[in-house]
Amino acid sequence: MKALITGNRGFVGQHLTRLLESEGMEVIGYDLLDGLDVTSLDLHEFLDKQRPNYIFHLAAMTSIPESFENPIGCMASNIGGSVNLLEAIRKADLTCRVLLASSTEVYTPATDDTPLSETSSVQPRTPYGVSKLSMEQMASIYAGMYEMQVVVTRTNNHTGPGQDGPFAVSSFAKQIVAIERGDQDILRHGDLTSFKSYLDVRDVVRAYRLAIDMEPYIYNIASDEPVEMQSILDRLVAQAKAPIPTSTDTSLVRRATLEKTYYATSSKLIEAGWKPEYNLERTLHDTLEYWRKK
Q: Could you tell me the residue ranges of all domains in the chain?
């Protein structure tokens, strides 16, 4: 069996690659870091040559703040790249199972803490959310018109070893290690009063692996246990090997629109046998250790 992962050298893609290879699957990648752009028309020729049994489409702009700063780029990557992939599958007359990684950002913000299900209303409030919902709608068209076997997963916040960039948990861990090494004096953070729910990336890729073989549908991959960001920072600081002074950086305090948390239920996948194996303490510990080994 052969699997194609777009964005295979990204944070999630690397974990998914290891999981699939541990099963003995041949994994091929299509990544911008290798000079392969998912928006390129060359994707058709690539698919026609490789003819994978599975396609996991992870390549995307994933930063919500960046989607506000560069909405055109967000739409080009997340909508254009996805449509280009679907069109390449069609042109190659490829019979395979496809997983498109979407987000709980597509949902209408809840008015209470009731977890969102796959049938909850959708009305995204960020360019990133709009791009993912548009991707889903195009996938529905291709699935209906061309009988493609497409699964859509809506994932909420996930973190763990290997994550970099402007994401809170990895930023906290990276700064703590820099302070431990004497390379930084103070940990800078944004608003710590917001609540977020996190999954470990290793649990997320296990869910991807299960979902791609399931009935074509939309599946939430999410945690419905919100944690205050102050608590997450406190837990990381408690594991530090040096005193960690902290300070609020106003440039990191995001508008309320960006801080909306979406509590969602993963009941469909849980019914199919998936459940998280990593608790938050383990995830935070492993993320710190990742940065200590860098």
A: 2-158+199-221, 160-195+225-257+279-293
Domain spanning 2-158+199-221: which superfamily? NAD(P)-binding Rossmann-like Domain (3.40.50.720)
Strand spans (E) along the chain: 2-6, 26-30, 54-57, 97-103, 149-155, 158-159, 187-189, 195-196, 199-200, 218-221, 227-228, 246-248
Cα–Cα distance measured from residue 230 to residue 226, given in angstroms and rounded to the nearest whole number? 12
Largest Cα span, the chain: 59
Residue 25 carries which side chain, given as an amino acid letter?
M
Q: At what angle do helices 81-91 and 127-146 cross, to 10 degrees?
A: 10
- Give the global pTM: 0.94
Q: What is the pLDDT of residues 93-150, one digit of tens each?
A: 999 999 999 999 999 987 777 888 999 999 999 999 999 999 999 999 999 999 999 9
For the domain 160-195+225-257+279-293, what is the CATH superfamily, name and number? UDP-galactose 4-epimerase, domain 1 (3.90.25.10)
Picking from 171, 170, 204, 196, the residue whose alpha carbon sits closest to that of residue 287 is: 170
